[in-house]
Amino acid sequence: MKLIKVMVVASAVGLVSGSVALADGYKDCTKLDKAAWKTVADAEAKAKAAGYEVRQTKIEGTCYEVYGVKGGKLFELFYSPENLALKHTVAK
Amino acid sequence: MRDAGQASRSVSSETPANSRPGTVAVWDIPLRVWHWALAAFVLVACVTPNTFDRLHRLAGYAVIGLLAFRLIWGWIGSRHSLFERISLKLRAAPRYMMSIMRGETGRYLGLNPAGAAMLIAMLGLLIISTISGVMQVSLRFFGVWWVEDAHALSSNAIIALIAVHVLGTLWMSVLQRENLIRAMFTGRKRVPGSARTVIGKTRPGASVAGAEVPEPAERAERISVVPDLPPGRATPQPAAAKPAGPPRMPRALSVHDRKLGLGN
């Protein structure tokens, strides 16, 4: 019974901490200091120019994460705030 | 936990032959399967957001299915799966949790009031989390901030509640000297009143549906404000407490009948 308890507690702690560690998606876009970043509006403008309907933009790590809809499909676009290069795209 | 020798004799005649003596079936098989399947899928969902989108979504859909099952099972399941009396227990929950803080517990065969509160909170948050999760990837609600926040907040709250649930169950297992984790695997718990000391009084009333009046608590175990549904067939009943039935068919008494105090 004691063994079960120890195992349950250990696995619960392990899973919770593991989920915290794993819960990160794409988040490394630039090493540039935040003060020198291009603005969110610039990133959104770039997504719009590429044909996306922009829903929302968040800062994820050192990326601009733009929520865009194109052709009825959902995308998360990761732009580098340094030069607005499209680093990563996630189709939802 | 194997101390229930006294109670086993009167119970064993009514429980299946393969079950451990001194225990009574509490959690039905669908409920147990549901519990562990839910735990598995929620844990999968906990470790997959943003990284394994497909798996995360599949786990979410599975949880939705399980939630639907539980809501149905709360209507048609066996006694301890039912939502029927849960409002009574919810009302007792604050006081019960306060007394847990002081290390005092009342034993319940089914969910105790704190467990009932946990069940409701968990089901509510899971419903919010799964629905907001589905909304999040719908064309209409994609990128809408409050949907995302609802999903993130409810999911984090679920993780916190899981921790409370696990620790609370372990603590209760220690306080009441009953392995509640095993009970969720085997479905069986020890018979009420078969704890360390047995005090003669047992609960009357074998009917499930008709019992509206809260029954007095078991002195031996310091139970509590709101009673469980009264144990049914498995409760040992003193002969005196039985209501007068129809007149008995005359028949010869055997030695065994007299030993058991039956007849006349």
Q: How many helices of chain B in DSSP terms?
A: 8
Strand content of chain B: under 5%
Spatially, the strands of the biggest sheet of chain A line up as 1-2-3-4
What's the architecture of chain A, going by CATH? Roll
Low-confidence parts of chain B: 1-15, 196-227, 229-237
What strand order characterises the main sheet of chain B? 1-2
| Straight-line N-to-C gap of chain B | 37 Å
N-to-C CA distance of chain A: 44 Å
Q: Give the CATH level 1 class of chain A.
A: Alpha Beta
Largest sheet of chain A: 4 strands, antiparallel
| Fraction of residues in H or I helices of chain A | 25-40%
Number of strands of chain B: 2
Radius of gyration of chain A: 19 Å
Q: From the alpha carbons, calculate the radius of gyration of chain B and give it in angstroms.
A: 22 Å
Number-wise, the strands of chain A total 4
Largest sheet of chain B: 2 strands, antiparallel
What is the average of the pLDDT values of chain B?
A: 77
Chart the SSEs and their pairings.
The complex is a heterodimer of chains A (92) and B (264).
Chain A: H1 2-22, H2 40-49, E1 53-60, E2 63-70, E3 73-79, E4 86-91
Antiparallel strand pairs in A: 1-2, 2-3, 3-4
Chain B: H1 5-12, E1 23-25, H2 29-47, H3 53-76, H4 86-101, H5 113-136, H6 145-176, H7 180-186, E2 188-190, H8 255-259
Antiparallel strand pairs in B: 1-2
Helix pairs in contact in B: 2-3, 3-5, 4-5, 5-6
